[in-house]
Amino acid sequence: MALAVRISTTGGVEVLQCCDVGRERPAPGEVWLDQLAIGVNPLDVSQRRGDAPVTLPSGLGLEGAGTVGAVGEGVTAFHVGERVGYATGPLGAYASGRQYPAERLVRLPDAVSFDSAAAVLFKGITAQYLLTTTYPVGNDTVAVIYGAAGALGQIMVPWARHLGARVIGVVSRSASVERARAAGCDHVLVFDSATMGEQVADITRGRMADVVYDGVGKVSFDASLNCLRPRGLMVSFGMTSGAPSPVSVSTLNAKGSLYLTRPSLAAHTASSEVYQQRAHEVLRALETGIIRADPRHIFSLSDVRTAHALLEQGKTEGAVILKP
Q1: Residue 282 DSSP SS3
Q2: How does the average pLDDT of the chain come out, rounded?
Q3: Residues whose CB is less than 8 angstroms from the CB of residue 162 and which lie 6 or more positions away in sequence, other chains included
Q4: How many CB atoms lie within 10 A of CB 67?
Q5: Four-point Cα dihedral 211, 217, 219, 223, nearest 10
Q6: Do residues 16 and 48 lie in contact, with contact meaning Cβ atoms separated by under 8 Å?
Q7: Which of 17, 128, 207, 270 is the most buried (most CB within 10 A)?
Q8: For 61-84, what is each residue's pLDDT tens digit?
């Protein structure tokens, strides 16, 4: 038997239900994974609340690591006992064991622990595509990165600095400033929607930011637009405060012919080839010390409600993982 978390309706943490499920024979092209660590991400919370709709009933979770327990027909790339991780759908990572498509598995180097893989793969791939594809940051790029003290920010900030960017980190409270500085931010701002634009103008001596990476959503959207230079790029990729309100294209014109995008990890990992390439870049960055895994909050799988509550309240500093 395996322990799995399911939701049959959306809502608060009380909708998260633990149940026993049978160990299934893997279908052709799939493996059975014995999971040893599971990543928890803001998207999971949005799906649980119904902000990001999923078909119900459903499992949750898009990130995990463990060993191959059995292989289905046609699977030749992996063998029983091999160490693997993953960071995309199908949903269902919140489980001690599960079926999973073999082509979406990532082989883990010996130096990368299961906890590290579960803490970094989903967020690392997100950081990789945001910094290299959505806006290829480089020398002299001025980047504003929200959540600089959080799990994703702690990956994006040092990686952006490694690529040559000047980073202005944004945090939600004063207590997080030093953690954001330690990650490599050149400047750290405590979020204030009324003054964000002026503060970025002062820091950059009027140049403003080339790109803003905003994973907060509704409450920060307008302030983020005010931080950009003419023809700068607004990257709205998260909604921890709710989805941003619709924006008029005339607003983008009035603020300097701004660009706006709403990217997703799914669209940037649609092919297995691109997915594997991005995942391997993350693992290389981890092995070479460009980024580091930071599983700061570890809960048992059966304590998933506490993990979600902590993340939802914005009280995390670093990655949250579940252990079966």
Answers
A1: helix
A2: 95
A3: 285, 290
A4: 18
A5: 10
A6: yes
A7: 128
A8: 999 999 999 999 999 999 999 999
Helix (H, G, I), strand (E, B) or coil at 212: strand
Count, in order, helices (H) and strands (E) of the chain: 10, 16
What pTM value is reported for the model? 0.93
Q: What is the DSSP string of 60-78?
A: --S-EEEEEEEE-TT--S-
Q: In the chain, at which residue ranges do the beta strands (DSSP E only) sit?
A: 2-7, 17-21, 30-40, 58-59, 64-71, 83-86, 97-101, 106-107, 142-146, 166-171, 187-190, 209-214, 228-236, 259-261, 295-300, 319-323
> In the numeric block, which tokens belong to residue 274?
């691109």
Domains in the chain and their CATH numbers? 2-113+293-323 (3.90.180.10), 122-265 (3.40.50.720)
Residues 6+ apart with CB under 8 A from 88: 62, 104, 122, 265, 266, 269, 275
